[in-house]
Design a protein that fits this description.
The chain is α/β, with parallel strands linked by helices. The protein has 14 helices and 8 strands. An 8-stranded mixed sheet has the order 1-2-4-3-5-6-7-8, sandwiched between helices. The longest helix is centred in the first third of the chain and has 32 residues, at 2-33. The radius of gyration is 22 Å and the shape is globular.
Length: 416
């Protein structure tokens, strides 16, 4: 009996020790690896969320080292438990899980009678093409459907690393084409269909719009009504824009993490990371060709006051360039589309956050659209960070600016 008690005591001590070690490591990482600039909303709550993410990532790494599965798989599971908001049935909506041309989607339809056909909204979730599910965005999609009286279609596209580019784009494109062709089956006016998404979902939104507008001239497809881009990731050419330098250590998206996500989407070769970060992944002539659309000088001066150091790189690695060539395709980097493609795009709503590495992608795309005569509605969250709309109604972890941002999106949609 004494041996049993001693064994249990040792096991308990080990568990407690490991827990203390984990907590200590998380606290150390949160306070040493991240920077919360003056003016960012809810720094204490943001540190807590980041700490949860660090803990999940650490546990995922431990699980992988123990042979329990890959870190990404384990992190997906833990994120679904720790960060997902509880699903609440809403008497005002009909929800159904179906497939659009083989792509799983969740359709949210208002119960109430409508005077005519409804607006349709496709939503592509964020998560760096690696994480995220329609369950994670359940609360947001329900809110948008209810507040706008629209039919919302949330798309469960396939993820990396199991599936690489262009799988995610093709899933979203096929789901959109199916909805355009079958809108009336859901009581939707096919001339009032909006494509939307956040972060990597914003990338997919712009890419889908580019492809569909190119198809419209040679098909009988109805035109898309609008595109909603919520802090979108739009290019893999330059990771030294002002927002990338200013916010490189700001949660919830670090500069290095964005490179990780892009490379997971592309081919999974993380050895390319340093070349991409430094700008040595592309020849100088290629980068110069895109400077008319992609350079710090095109960003308004008020977004450069927190500092920017030009990054002049005159060399590149040919082997790396060969591997990253697909990133220059407009369906991978929509900001690089030619002028003719840009001017065909539907009116846009673009949301940016001040403390977000992707801020300048949104600002540069806004300028490109406006220069070609495409109407743009722009909303800037002055105290916002990447991912803030995911915390628009999360109890203690709610950020008022996230709620204001979501309501601004709703207001834009209701006017369509």
């Amino acid at each position: 009996m004494d041996l049993v008690i001693w064994t249990l005591a040792m096991m308990l001590a080990l568990v407690v020790g490991l827990f203390v070690l984990l907590v200590s490591g998380v606290v150390y990482t949160v306070f040493t690896d991240s920077v919360l600039p003056e003016g960012i909303q809810g720094p204490g709550k943001l540190r807590l969320i980041y700490g949860i993410q660090v803990a999940i990532g650490t546990l995922g790494n431990i699980a992988q080292n123990l042979g329990l599965g890959t870190q990404i798989t384990f992190v997906r599971y833990l994120r679904s438990k720790a960060l997902r908001t509880k699903r609440k049935e809403d008497a005002g909506l009909i929800t159904q899980d179906v497939q659009f041309d083989g792509v799983p989607v969740r359709v949210y339809q208002p119960w109430s009678a409508a005077a005519g056909k409804r607006r349709g909204i496709l939503f592509f979730h964020g998560g760096g093409w690696v994480f995220g599910t329609i369950n994670d965005y359940e609360h947001l999609c329900r809110y948008i459907a209810k507040e706008t009286g629209s039919v919302v279609v949330s798309v469960e596209y396939r993820l990396a690393p199991e599936h690489r580019y262009p799988t995610q784009f093709e899933d979203c494109l096929n789901a959109t084409l199916h909805f355009l062709k079958t809108a009336e089956d859901y009581g939707v006016d096919s001339s009032r269909i909006v494509v939307s998404g956040d972060s990597s979902g914003g990338n997919l939104t712009a890419a889908v719009c580019l492809r569909i507008t190119a198809m419209e001239e040679s098909s009988d497809l109805p035109a898309l009504c609008a595109q909603v881009l919520i802090y979108p990731a739009l290019q893999m050419v330059d990771f030294n824009l002002p927002s990338y330098q200013q916010n490189q250590y700001v949660p919830l998206l670090f500069r290095t993490r964005m490179v990780f996500f892009f490379l997971q989407y592309l081919n999974g070769d993380m050895s390319l990371g340093e070349d991409v970060l430094s700008g040595q992944h592309l020849p100088v002539e290629i980068k110069n060709n895109y400077r008319r659309w992609l350079k710090a000088d095109l960003i308004p001066s008020e977004f450069q006051v927190r500092g920017h150091k030009p990054n002049l790189v005159l060399t590149h690695d040919d082997d790396v360039y060969d591997l990253v060539k697909p990133t220059l395709e407009p369906t991978f980097s929509p900001l690089l589309a030619n002028d003719a493609a840009i001017e065909r795009l539907p009116p846009a709503y673009i949301l940016t956050c001040e403390f977000d590495v992707l801020r300048d992608d949104g600002l540069l795309f806004k300028k490109r659209l406006e220069d070609k005569g495409v109407p743009v509605t722009w909303y800037h969250v002055q105290d916002g960070f990447h991912g803030i709309i995911s915390f628009f109604n999360n109890g203690y972890l709610t950020f008022p600016s996230g709620k204001q941002a979501v309501d601004n999106i709703v207001s834009f949609l209701k006017d369509i």
